[in-house]
Amino acid sequence: xxxxxxQFINGIALGSIYGLIALGYTMVYGIIGMINFAHGDIFMIGxxxxxxxxxxxxxxxxxxVPLALFLVLxxxxxxxxxYGWVVERVAYRPLRHSFRLAPMLSAIGxxxxxxxxxxxxxGARVKPLPPLIPGGLILIDNGGFVVQVSxxxxxxxxxxxxxxxxxxxxxxxxxLGRDMRACEQxxxxxxxxxxxxxxxxxxTFVIGAALAAVAGFMYxxxxxxxxxxxxxxxxxxxxxxxxxxxxxxxxxxxxxxLAIGLIxxxxxxxxxxxxxxxxxxxxLIVVLIFMPTGLLGRPEIEKV
Amino acid sequence: xxxxxxxxxxxxxLSIKGLRTAYGKIIALKGIxxxxxxxxxxxxxxxxxxxxSTLMMTIFGxxxxxxxxxxxxxxxxTQIATHDIARRRIAQSPEGRxxxxxxxxxxxxxxxxxxxxxxxxxxxERVLNLFPRLRERLTQRGGTLSGxxxxxxxxxxxxxxxxxxxxxxxxxxxxxxxxxxxxxxAIRELxxxxxxTVLLVEQNAFHALKLAHRGYVMVNGLITMTGSGHELLExxxxxxxxxxxxxx
Lengths: 304, 248
Ligand SMILES: Nc1ncnc2c1ncn2[C@@H]1O[C@H](COP(=O)(O)OP(=O)(O)O)[C@@H](O)[C@H]1O
Ligand SMILES: [Mg+2]
What we know:
Chain A contains 11 helices and 4 strands, in the order H-H-H-H-E-E-E-H-H-H-H-E-H-H-H.
């Protein structure tokens, strides 16, 4: 039981990271009906920028860990958001009125470009970061087994929760959020009403990339290592999470992220670490057979 | 009365000249001339597939005109971005209504104010007084409204921008006669009391021409006739082609 509880905590923390990445996939899909295959690499770049920013701050003598982490997070979000914006401008917008598969091919190409760019610029070796946030909360200590929530896990989960709340409020309550929903439901009509749809789409990429940067930052402080390949691995799991939750659904992305995080952790804990990725994808296939629109997705017919 | 080449009267709010639009190889508009003066209700009638909706959408630059000119209030808007055309306060209730299905009625109405940031609670009141049904359903999702209510919402949403030109594409389509009558009555009321200029597309030629100051008849991408609403109603060709059974 204690072992299960510990795995549960680990799964939630990992799932939060997947969920934040999945939000970016699902937002872009909702608004332009395209899978942004480069999004996983945007997440990876967010992690690298966080690492570089941290090393720069240390070199500059900023040693107070909370301040440094906060600055790193902001810097990573800003620069990664810029990457997201540029990717949309360069690779997707020119193809918006092209044939259906063109933006998807462009997205796959963009994923390679970003992945290889980081591989060349940073090298293929795993980059470590010294553990910055030690300690944790001991929940259960019955002599034999200790159930513990590390401080990093607390930060990961609380940050994710806070971002989810802020993000939901933006979507539900602000003019920008309403314009985003309008574009998602009927882009032509939104334009007829005066919504600058290109700008809304750009903003969607920017927000998605900023959230991915937070995920990259948290991945970095959680695992303490990063390499260019995580863009592909975590990206594909987050994409799976988005599909599992129902692509296009924002709560679905978060739920799917948590589900994938939990499945992966539990599978590694009780069966075999080698097959944990297979487990997540198998469950996805099973869910899609019985619920083709995912857990919280809506049937396509409801679209006008 | 072949009206293809009428000189544009000074002070036309909307003036369209030689407009051609194509979808790939299909030429949907083959040189349209049309104008709408301030304060007028202009009806555009024609059979299914004549190109009426294409004209409405081309005015908004979606699709873009292949050639010809669209001038609104003295400004050439032929190449302007769709959202910027809306910001000139031209509002459209398009074919199929295009209500945002997963937004509440109130949010749908608020979407109408994007093009008119100064839109006020008075505009909302005006819409809700015009269509009291919407007031009872403000929190309901757009997608759950009946056809008539959706039509009211689409017109109401267009009115929220306080438009200088209101464009309505088949507002009576699929509505019960009584509801259709309510809609036409509302259009008349808006024009009379608020002086809203209206370009109205209708297959229901009888009601449209009765309501309109002037009308245009479109056949196969061309304007074939124009005249006052009364004149057109009296013409035997129109009676034969568009009024048979259309009178209810
Ligand atoms: N999106 C489109 N793609 C291709 N052809 C279209 C499209 N929309 C309309 N058309 C064609 O253009 C012509 C005019 O259609 P439309 O403007 O909808 O007529 P109306 O509104 O008078 O019924 C028709 O032949 C129609 O098939
Ligand atoms: Mg039509």
